[in-house]
Amino acid sequence: MKVLWITNVELPDAANSRGNNVVVGGWMHQTLNYIKNSIELYVAACVSEKYDWIEINSVNYCGFTPEIDEIDFERIIESIDPDCIHIWGSEYNHSYYVTKAARNLSKIECTVLSIQGLVSVYAEHYYDGLPPELIHRRTLKEFFGRRNIAQEKKMMELQGQTEISTFQMLENCIGRTDWDYACAKQMNPQIEYHFCGEILRESFYVNRWKYEECDKEVIFFSQAHYPIKGLHIMLRALPIIKEYYPAVVLRIVGNNPQKKAIFKRSSYEKYICNLIHDNDLSNSIEWLGQLSENEMMLNYKKANVFVCSSSIENSSNSIGEAMLVGTPIVASDVGGIKSFMEHEKEGMLYHSTAVYMLADNVIRIFNSRSLAIQLGNNAHERAKKYHCIEDNLQRLIKIYNKLKCK
């Protein structure tokens, strides 16, 4: 059976062959490694510079640019004549154009889209927890071409309209939470929803957090690059935590915006810098830069608690990785998180803008060795089932077999 994947990013084997380095999309690469011996796989990825088909380790790769249209996708599809087309994510224009191409070629019945995030819904949460005066502010950088927060939200809303149009053409989608089921059905009540969990990166299945070996009073925070990830919420909670644990350390994946020249900062970066300065938090924060898979795994193991304070998520891969490792988790009760985490069983949940409850949950875990261990063990057991490689691989192959073109 021939399957054509459409991906938002270039996968590692193809990227490495062209001298590039990729640190995102690990779940897709892991799925590819397990499924490539069961199907004839073709991967078309969105890249900065187009390239034709190359074969690497029994998988065929090509690259298309963001400017691609339905005609170009028709050529790609016709050159392969796949039995199934699998689109990974709906956030970008190419998902719309490949869906349209599949419909034009009478292959829409054998096309399926995996829901990742949903920009049409994420846009509604872009301002969550932000002070009103920040939303329309512009820094010097934003006067010279960079979009400010209000413009970013507007761009997300426009992209969301394209996403909705994509779903309205589709007949099949793959999801994994009650949240993405509800959203998909509201965009297209006739769409057939197929459940399939995600296969995460290998090292998180084989490494375990241990209380005795973790760095006490350390919080690990894995994404901080834009408002939806909620770093501002975490930074507002940190002074409360410091009242009880003055030596607390927040380790953040990403680069320190304080080290940027003032004229190069975005409005959100300026706000983050102000929160750090006004609350005297500089000595309580470690910026880790961009981390490899192994470095991420080590930081999950070292942390006393992992925090996800996003204003919206579907099923966060970072939470999934932390659960597999068994790191105690505090997470905002948003999106699809409740589909795989029960409050006070596999993690601690709080209302997304309730800064004081985020702080309280972290303090409770710091206070109690037994609670930390219990949460970590329960999370690991739940994640083993939710992210089970064998089960999810079988589900995906079953979906392909069900949808394959006659």
Automatic annotation (TrEMBL):
Where does the Glycosyl transferase family domain start and stop, copy by copy?
A: 214-381
Q: One Pfam family, short name please?
A: Glycos_transf_1
Tell me which domain of life the UniProt entry assigns to the organism this sequence originates from: Bacteria
What is the protein's given name?
Answer: Glycosyltransferase
Species this chain originates from: Blautia massiliensis (ex Durand et al. 2017)
Instruction: List the top taxonomic levels of the source.
Output: Bacteria, Bacillati, Bacillota, Clostridia, Lachnospirales
